[in-house]
Amino acid sequence: MDGNESKDSKKDNINNNYNTIDKEEKEITCSHISTDSSLGNIVKLFKKENDQKNIPVIGIDLGTTFSCVGTWRKRNVEIIASDLGSRIIPSIVCFKDKEILIGESAKSVMLKNQNSLISNSKRFIGKYFIDPNVQNDIKYIPVKIEEDPFTYKPNYCININEKEEKRLSAEEVASMILKYLKKFSEDFIGKKVIKAVITVPAHFNNSQREATKEAAINAGLEVIRIINEPTAAAIAYGDIHKSEEERKVLIFDLGGGTFDVSIVIIKGNEYTILASCGEEHLGGENFNELLVDYVINQFKEDNSKFKNVNFYDKNDKKAVKALQRLRKEVEVIKKNLSAESALILSIDSIYENENLEIEILRTTFEDLCYDLWKKCFKSVDNALSIAKLKKEDIDDIILVGGSTRIPRIKEMITNYFNKIPKQNINADEIVAYGAALYATLDLKINDITSKSIGIQTSPTQMEVIIPKGTPFPSKKFNKYFICKNNLKKIVVRILEGDNEDISKNQLLTKLTINLNKEYNEKAICQIIMYVDCNSILKIKGKVNDEDNNQVDIKLQFN
């Protein structure tokens, strides 16, 4: 398990909290937690002390393209509008004349400030620069993005003015958005807000969850809980359609950046997730990218003099501006194609005074995206298989995320299940609504991990320690190593994922266990792992000496 250290094996400082496991096991944070083995580690939330003290809590859906926030007020959830009156907030940050614009105000000036505007930062949060998906997304982003020399993560290089450049991580951008949501929530509630429930895609990996939590803390928020977006949607559905009868509900969550499908049994205030599958990099932004590529290719075919122009070249200012204008128009066209069979995409002087005008058919858009949409249904197949259910066993289908408004996707879902999805659900607000409920009501939640966690045992093999589908907070999982041959240290690579090709699994950390001289061949080193209530991995180490005395050992994370 020893290996040469490389960039992709680096882990930033957010792993330092792994060693607080003992403290966290003993503490009761923002809610009382009890486990019932007969229910598989179901978490029970009693009425919060926060309610008794009248301390407000907000539920936040931090989205790839849009964000939303809600709170419990007057015995109901209210979605909070921004200072500009929007309930759905663009997840955009723009730097303009030393002023930081967020949300609608940032979107309104995006074309004039393409070198200082950041969008879709959620796709980079918790990821390394060399990640193939990061490299693909960089192509479509007008802002220059470079690798941070210390964390090896992507940094946005923003032009504050002609002389000043600022570098920001995705986590810092997320923190700015969260701070903005916090601010106008306080204006609405009339009190200071310090506590929040924040949602993430079910298929967010450990690093992404930690990074989201860190961003919230930096925004001045105490994170009561990080919950999965489909779980929040199920909670909202259960509140809207109250029933003591057991119902099997499928959550089809296709947003701007990710796709999750979860199957949930709901009975009264009890929610049990049977299966969760999906794609961590599939959503509306992927559909936009396909449409952008298509339009650029058509433009080059119609204008042969531009056939060698690279419209993704960030050093070509004209290309940068053209790409930004095109991305904005493509987003509008994509949405309007839900109501129209054909539209004209027209941009004056898009490049070197050449006009762009192209007809886009809805069928063309559907053909471009069809292979990605089929991947969604492979995940649905897998979820049903894991849950050991048939299509006809599903009582209701809940659509979450703006991409589920695409008519062809709705049609594919209806045909697949031979059932029409629920129509009285707001796909944009349901996740924030559920997060706000989670922060307030007495609920029993039995959620599960969406990926396996294990250790690398050879260049091609991974031993699974915590299997996919493990209820969390989980029990402790142990791995033992014998301290033989006068070992001075043991190096363990902790991986997350379910790919047979383990190089495609996420490296969480490279763990070094330094052994003291006094440990002889009879000593046994023990690594203890468990997943906490936020589905974040915790690790500690112990060693049993020859007299069977157990001693904590310090772990070094790289």
Q: What's this model, at a glance?
A:
This protein has 558 residues and is α+β, with helices and mostly antiparallel strands. Helices cover 27% and strands 32% of the residues.
Question: Would you mind describing this structure in some detail?
Answer:
Among the domains are: 7-12 and 450-557, Substrate Binding Domain Of DNAk, Chain A, domain 1; 284-365, ATPase, substrate binding domain, subdomain 4 (Actin, Chain A, domain 4, Alpha-Beta Complex), CATH 3.90.640. 27% of the residues lie in helices and 32% in strands. Mean pLDDT is 86; it is low at 1-52. The radius of gyration is 24 Å and the shape is globular. It is of the alpha+beta class.
Set out the fold topology.
Elements: H1 21-26, E1 43-45, H2 49-52, E2 57-61, E3 66-73, E4 76-79, E5 89-90, E6 92-96, E7 99-102, H3 104-107, E8 117-119, H4 132-138, E9 144-147, E10 154-159, E11 165-169, H5 170-189, E12 195-200, H6 206-218, E13 222-228, H7 229-240, E14 247-254, E15 259-267, E16 270-279, H8 284-302, H9 317-336, E17 342-351, E18 354-361, H10 362-387, E19 396-400, H11 407-417, H12 430-438, E20 443-448, E21 453-458, E22 461-466, E23 471-472, E24 477-482, E25 489-496, E26 506-514, E27 524-531, E28 537-544, E29 550-553, E30 555-557
Parallel strand pairs: 2-12, 12-13, 14-19, 16-20
Antiparallel strand pairs: 1-20, 2-3, 3-4, 3-5, 6-7, 6-8, 9-10, 10-11, 14-15, 15-16, 17-18, 20-23, 21-22, 21-25, 24-27, 25-26, 26-30, 27-28, 28-29
Helix pairs in contact: 5-6, 7-12, 8-9, 8-10
